[in-house]
Design goal:
about 40% helix
Length: about 425
């Protein structure tokens, strides 16, 4: 006979539902933490949603099937029952709660017994490196399990860093068994967390601030990059934080005036940021562009220099005093992040003017529009009124949903005409 109330059974806690509850506890690391440092959580009682007397009467076959499945799987758990339907359909003892006597039982129920054994072994070995690291194992149990032996290597690096503050060498020169530069770069966050535990302090953030696409003010992130001429990348920040040497930041530029001598016939040059700040060239105009082909294709221009941009992070230009006496033009993508980068550049050189980042250019290239995946919502304080209007219109979707115009898609004749119109 077909069930009369098939919808009711969907609310009952099935065996799969019970397992999902336990699996979620595993995924949060709670079972591993309990196994490492037991509390009073066990015996753990998990209440079960069960059929009511009316549901039992209306859909007895489904209720019986539901209860049979739970009773048949008793082993890693026991069942508490409750008498239901005594005055309507007759006395029926239905599962009311599943009880796990030990954490090991619930781990077995979700099929993670082998992983639990591996975790206990890793935690013991990690504590053998230094007892304080048990705190990290409790904080990151699933990460310890996923890392395996790599966690032990990271711990050895953390110990070395504690014993050797400010080593003044390159990461490549660090000689520890099984540890190389790529390993440290891959596991630097873990190393930082472990070192913080060893030094009994909060871990330092590996990021300069919130992500470039995040909502909020731009100054926290971008100004942080500008004020620190070294820490533009996570690897560089790690090196600086722990006193390692790091390869110097490089600046690539082209002299657009063939009459200005440089290094023989060399016109496209890359130098360290420090060397760039000491240049003494007879240029009065600097054009910054984010696109490599645009950078390479820019034509001759009297007393001008083209600078290949690097997106967020103009720390290399922070100390370039001679640029303060030059006209500086910035050509970025016509999207919210292009304006945010412009805003950042003005934190270093307030006199920067934008080029090809206006509404006329945007509207003249509708066929080349694409979608900006993660538009910036930051409040930008360094834009001109015209720039701010375009930025806000992009953010408010006045032109369309998440419109962007990449600078390499602007017609070259259009670009040259407007670049040439700029003062020299």
């Amino acid at each position: 006979m077909p069930a009369k109330n098939t919808g009711a059974s969907r609310t009952w806690t099935t065996l799969a539902g019970l397992r999902s509850l336990s699996a979620a506890t595993w995924e949060r690391g709670q079972l591993l933490r309990e196994a490492l440092e037991p509390t009073e959580a066990y015996p753990r009682r998990r209440a079960l949603k069960r059929p009511s007397a009316a549901e039992l009467r209306d859909d007895y076959a489904a209720a019986r099937e539901w209860a049979t499945e739970l009773f048949a799987s008793v082993g890693t758990y026991t069942l508490e029952t409750v008498d239901v339907g005594r005055t309507t359909i007759g006395s029926n003892h239905l599962p009311a709660a599943a009880v796990f006597a030990r954490v090991e039982d619930e781990v077995a129920f979700v099929g993670k017994t082998q992983e639990l054994g591996q975790f206990r072994s890793l935690a013991e070995r990690l504590t053998g490196v230094d007892p304080a690291l048990s705190t990290w194992a409790m904080k990151r149990p699933l990460q310890l399990l996923a890392l395996g032996d790599a966690a032990l290597s990271a711990a050895r690096v953390a110990l070395w860093l504690r014993a050797n503050p400010g080593p003044g060498i390159y990461l490549r020169q660090l000689s520890l068994p099984g540890v190389h530069t790529k390993f440290i770069e891959t596991h630097r966050r873990i190393i930082d967390e472990m070192l913080a535990v060893l030094q009994h302090r909060p871990p330092e953030d590996d990021q300069p601030g919130q992500s470039a696409a995040a909502d909020g003010a731009a100054s926290d992130e971008t100004d942080g990059l500008l004020l620190n001429p070294i820490a533009r990348t996570p690897a560089a920040r790690f090196a600086e934080r722990h006193g390692f040497l790091h390869p110097p930041e490089l600046v690539r530029f082209r002299l657009l005036d063939p009459e200005i001598p440089l290094l023989g016939d060399a016109r496209d040059v890359m130098v360290t940021a420090e060397a760039f700040s000491t240049l003494r060239l007879p240029v009065t105009s600097v054009l910054v562009t984010e696109n490599l082909v645009n950078f390479l294709a820019l034509p001759h221009r009297p007393r001008s220099l083209a600078l290949f941009g690097a997106g967020y992070g103009f720390s290399s230009l922070r100390d370039v005093e001679w640029m303060r006496d030059c006209e500086v033009l910035y050509w970025g993508d016509l999207d919210t992040h292009g304006f945010r980068i412009l805003d950042q550049l003005r934190a270093v050189h307030p006199h920067v003017s934008s080029v090809l980042m206006d509404e006329a250019t945007l509207l003249a290239h509708r066929e080349a529009w694409s979608v900006e995946v993660s538009p910036s919502r930051a409040q930008l304080a360094r834009l001109t009124p015209e720039e701010a209007e375009v930025y806000e219109s992009l953010g408010n979707n006045r032109y369309g949903n998440d419109v962007r115009l990449e600078q390499e898609l602007i017609r070259w004749d259009w670009a040259l005409e407007r670049i040439a119109a700029g003062p020299v």
